[in-house]
Amino acid sequence: MIAQKNRARSAAVWLLLAAGSMCAMPAPAAGHQAEDPAVEQGREAFGDATFPWYNSESDSLEPIEFWNPPKWDSPVDLGSVLQILFWIGITVLVIVLVVLIYRFTRDQTSRELSVALQRTSDEILAADQVEALGFLAERPRDDLLGRARRYYEEGNYAEAIIYLFSYQLLQLDKFALIRLAKGKTNRQYLREAGRVPPLGGSLERTMLAFEHVFFGQRGLDRAGFEACWNALPDFEQQLRATS
Prior knowledge:
Elements: H1 2-24, H2 37-48, E1 54-55, E2 60-61, H3 78-122, H4 127-132, H5 144-154, H6 157-174, H7 186-193, H8 197-214, H9 222-229, H10 232-242
Antiparallel strand pairs: 1-2
Helix pairs in contact: 5-6, 6-8, 6-9, 7-8, 8-9, 8-10
């Protein structure tokens, strides 16, 4: 009995050693294992199509080259841009200064000529001018334009037009556009002034109103005088343009 038990125990030990040896043996190589069907189907799908990132011959991934926009060969020179803007600003500034100087000089000249005209009107008429302007014989003969303005403000348009017409004739004589002389008619003065058409038109308007009052012995309303008075700035500007 004891011998049988010993034999049975020895057999069990050998069985355990055999099983442990089998577990310790290495697994078969991967190359000898069967291919996974899913892997094989994926390889066939990629093989039938073309992908830039897959190489079907080597069954491997390929690197993809991405396109990058080219860099500027000649980047913008900020210094050159600022220099161009600087010179543009200088040019604009010079143009503005020239315009301002021109306008200032023109206004200054205009004021000086206006003062000269005013001084002329303030002077007492010379003897030959008194004879030429016979209608002023019994009237004050200083400050012709100032008197025309005062009579205008007082509403005495008849006297105002006499002095306004006298003032215009005196200025035309001063600028050598007519020649005041005794015995000459208003039509002669008008023809002489007509060599400068705008001046002739201004003088004719005032002359007709003057003759309506002085020779026709008729009155003159405000509108009739203001039509002549409001044209005076243009008359003086045209005089300055001829000098």
